């Protein structure tokens, strides 16, 4: 199966564990596409929620998806710094239609000073029961929360000081 190439415009589809669509990002420009990692950029893209409501993102963002890690990272470029929104999720898959992943509710918001907050623990517990997350998935997700916090504290991967700036510069070449 062919992966998206640099410069391709793709959609991103987020699902819930029960297979229902959660959210769709209309247009993201692929900046890097490999078996293990897809990095994309977008700005003011339309997002459609499961209930049909739409909204438009407010700022440029660099998106980091990995085929082996159970999280993805969105670096949002704002006037006062870079904010990160991290979704605890399944690794991505690419099926020639869209980049797809399962959103597992838990999120980490990271501020420009690299402080962070774990979000939506109540939603996670609710969905864990209602969608019957297997114990092995629960364990994987909790381990990946810890791995993500380790990356944030160590400024690894998408949290390294130059990561967002470098990929944003590349994104600008496609506009």
Can you walk through the features of this model?
The two termini are 27 Å apart. 23% of the residues lie in helices and 42% in strands. A seven-stranded mixed beta barrel has the order 1-2-3-6-7-8-10. The protein has one domain: FomD barrel-like fold, CATH 2.40.380. By secondary structure, the protein is of the alpha+beta class. Strand 4 (46-49) and strand 5 form a beta hairpin. The protein is built from three helices and eleven strands, in the order E-E-E-E-E-E-E-E-E-E-E-H-H-H.
Please provide the count of β strands: 11
- Name the structural class: alpha+beta
The proportion of residues in beta strands is 35-45%
Determine the mean pLDDT.
Answer: 97
CATH class: Mainly Beta
What is the topology, as strand order, of the major beta sheet?
A: 1-2-3-6-7-8-10
What is the share of helical residues?
Answer: 10-25%
CATH fold label? FomD barrel-like fold
What is the gyration radius calculated from CA atoms? 15 Å
Anisotropy-based shape = globular
Distance between the termini: 27 Å
What is the assembly state of the chains in this entry?
A: single chain
Main beta-sheet strand count, sense and barrel state: 7 strands, mixed, barrel
Order of helices and strands: EEEEEEEEEEEHHH
Tally of DSSP helical segments: 3
Q: Please give the CATH architecture.
A: Beta Barrel
Number of domains: 1
Low-confidence parts, pLDDT < 50 over ≥5 residues?
A: none
CATH homologous superfamily placement: FomD-like
């Amino acid at each position: 199966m062919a992966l998206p190439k640099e410069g391709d415009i793709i959609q991103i589809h987020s699902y819930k564990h029960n297979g229902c669509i959660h959210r769709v990002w209309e247009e993201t420009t692929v900046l890097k596409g490999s078996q293990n990692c897809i990095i994309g950029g977008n700005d003011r893209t339309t997002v459609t929620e499961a209930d049909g409501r739409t909204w438009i993102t407010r700022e440029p963002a660099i998106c980091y998806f990995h085929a082996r890690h159970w999280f993805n990272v969105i670096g949002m470029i704002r006037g006062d710094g870079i904010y990160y929104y991290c979704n605890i999720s399944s690794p991505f898959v690419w099926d020639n239609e869209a980049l797809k992943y399962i959103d597992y509710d838990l999120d980490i918001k990271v501020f420009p000073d690299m402080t962070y907050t774990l979000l939506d623990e109540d939603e996670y517990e609710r969905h864990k029961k209602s969608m019957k997350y297997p114990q092995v998935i629960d364990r994987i997700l909790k381990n990946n929360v810890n791995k993500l916090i380790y990356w944030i504290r160590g400024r690894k991967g998408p949290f390294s000081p130059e990561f967002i700036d470098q990929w944003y510069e590349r994104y600008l070449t496609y506009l």
